[in-house]
Amino acid sequence: MPVNSLTIHLLLGLALLLGVTASASAQVAPAAPESQSLAAVRRAAEDQLRGELDPAVTGVVFEAAELDSRLRVPACPSPLAVTGKLPRGTQARALVRVACIKKVYWTLNVPVEIHRQADVLVLRKAVGRGEIIRAEDVLVQSRVLPGLTSPFLTRPAELTGRLTRRPIPEGTAVTADALDAPLLIHRGQNVILTARTGGFEVRAPGLAMADAAAEQRVRVRNLNSLKIVEGVADTAGVVRVNP
Q1: What is the arithmetic mean of pLDDT over 2-20?
Q2: Fewer CB within 10 Å, N side or C side of the chain?
Q3: Whole-model pTM?
């Protein structure tokens, strides 16, 4: 069947019309929504805790946990809303809430690890239970510790008058709970006996019969009467006796 010129023009017009329509449809198709940067979410969580930190505290590192790369949330058109508090004591992790609360709504809970670079006292040699650690027995090392506060001793002066509660191996960082409380009274030390009654205080010289830390009971020989009395370690070199 012969194709006349009218038919050809109709086919060309139809093809042109379809092409224009397809092009127009491609232009108005909605684009896929942009996803929120997970790196920005992690930074926001870290910055929240950093802003809570006392500027005088140095060496602290905040490290937000890696978020699942498959996680997809719409990009937030407004600044992220972030809430979170620094943990107490030696806790080394905080949970920070990062949310979008304007036009787009989502919430992510981001764990943040907390570490601090600090100088600590480390034993040069092993020590046994009931021993005194001297300044020459330790060296100062910089270590990365969990949390904001540290249970480790940082100054040799903190060792003064304290006995070990248990054996401690060489190379161990010394913690406060590894040592007894500082001794205020030492065996064989000359001390002052004090007694208060009726608004008056009586003092007498004495000789300590044992070691004692603060508020521990200790026997003392009264050098005036030569009697042995029992009192409580009050301050360095002073024993309080109840009349």
Answers
A1: 46
A2: N
A3: 0.58
